[in-house]
């Protein structure tokens, strides 16, 4: 194994095993936890949906993949995508997905609007 691959693996192991970041969604009166990064395997479905022009479904898939409770357990299942797409405020879905996808804590809606 090359030295560069070892460094890549070390960096990834450090990023994936770090503390969970917390975002409080006041609209849902809930704390959502997430990591800075996720494996490409989990991102593949989101990327596939985006490439098919299914942006809304991709955002909901990102929440299913990334939103965690304080113990690191997933908050949503694949079955929740229908509810997220049809029975949740789209503005809140976009805001929460943007925070989680950015990998940054305490992103404001003004910061998201600038992107």
Describe the structure.
The chain has helices at residues 3-16, 40-51, 55-66, 80-87, 90-102, 109-114, and strands spanning 21-25, 30-34. It has a two-stranded antiparallel sheet with strand order 1-2. The model is unreliable at 106-115 (pLDDT under 50). The radius of gyration is 15 Å and the shape is globular. The protein has 6 helices and 2 strands. The protein has a single domain (20-114), classed as rbstp2171 (2-Layer Sandwich), CATH 3.30.2220. With 115 residues, it is mainly α.
Average pLDDT: 87
Strand order of the largest sheet: 1-2
Shape: globular
Low-confidence stretches: 106-115
> How many independent structural domains?
1
Spatial gap, N to C terminus: 39 Å
Helix content: 55-70%
**CATH fold title:** rbstp2171
Question: In CATH terms, what is the architecture?
Answer: 2-Layer Sandwich
Query: In percent terms, what proportion of residues is strand?
Result: 5-15%
Give me the count of strands.
2
Judged by helices, strands and strand pairing, the structural class is: mainly alpha
Along the chain, the helix and strand elements come as HEEHHHHH
Total of helices: 6
Backbone CA Rg: 15 Å
């Amino acid at each position: 194994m090359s030295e560069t691959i070892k460094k890549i693996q070390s960096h990834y192991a450090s990023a994936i095993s770090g503390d969970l970041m917390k975002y409080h969604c006041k609209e849902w009166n809930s704390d959502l936890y997430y990591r800075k990064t996720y494996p490409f395997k989990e991102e593949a479905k989101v990327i596939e949906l985006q490439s098919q022009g299914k942006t809304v479904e991709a955002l909901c898939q990102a929440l299913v993949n990334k939103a965690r409770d304080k113990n690191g357990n997933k908050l949503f299942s694949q079955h929740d995508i229908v509810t997220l797409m049809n029975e949740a405020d789209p503005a809140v879905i976009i805001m929460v997905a943007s925070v989680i996808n950015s990998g940054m804590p305490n992103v404001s809606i003004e910061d998201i609007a600038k992107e």
